[in-house]
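Practice record 12: protein with hexanoyl-coenzyme A.
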Amino acid sequence: MGFENLLVDIADGIATVTVNRPKQLNALDQKTLEELSAAFEQAGRDKGVRALVVTGAGDKAFVAGADIAAMSRLGPAEAREFAALGHRVFGLLEALPIVTVAAVNGFALGGGCELTLACDLVYASERARFGQPEVNLGLVPGFGGTQRLTRRVGPMRAKELVLTGDMVDAPTAKAMGLCLDVVPPEKLLEHARGKARTVASRGPVAVATAKRLIQQGADLPLGEANALERQGFAGLFGGEDAKEGMRAFLEKRPAQWKGT
Ligand code: HXC
């Protein structure tokens, strides 16, 4: 599918989705969100896609937030719609059964930071800056930032970011748990794709199950979450991949995954 504001490249089982509005620092307007929705759905349907990397075009921004010019024209009902669209798209990304990796090449602000929060793994270039600057605009995060950020970094750090609106540099973001590694800009995409490739080489049903258990469990009391794990673990024994994975180990050969 051709996109106006995205570049999508699929190679080696890894889809790379690049938000491509560099003049607006890759800000998210309605069209870009709708295109992201279509790209994520497509990646979820395509059996050849085993991992997804999200990044931004140019060397300045990952995504500098929702498009402020477009947002400035919205009334309350339209703002509700816009927030709902973002929530839908990021929810879709979060629920993909494959690993999703953010390669944060520059500013990840507001909706851009929220986009990283919907990804499983986040890697940053030395040039990256993270922040939730909405209070500077008289706004609050609206694409899940108050909730996913709190779950990722804890309530006090989330409050510091959201209430001050201040940006943090990449090492600080790493110390807070907003990203995993900080690498030189020219190494970022390959670093992110390398991690994606590692996950993509593992048992796909196990990866999807583990991701689901970690996500669903985080919103449940521990007892229920542990019950979910037992169910997920046992469920794998009904499929081919767990049998194959264990057999391959015992036969000292690489596993041939069937995805069942
Ligand atoms: C629209 C944006 C934009 C944005 C930058 N631009 N961010 N346009 N929406 N979020 C545009 C600028 O207007 C400018 O356009 C061009 O990109 C380059 O940006 P500059 O400001 O000139 O660059 P610089 O001085 O280097 O500053 C970079 C920056 C700054 C620190 C990232 O642009 C900035 O603070 N941007 C806004 C960040 C932000 O507040 N994000 C949160 C948005 S609210 P021209 O035409 O002048 O060249 C949000 C809510 C999500 O995300 C939830 C909604 C429901």
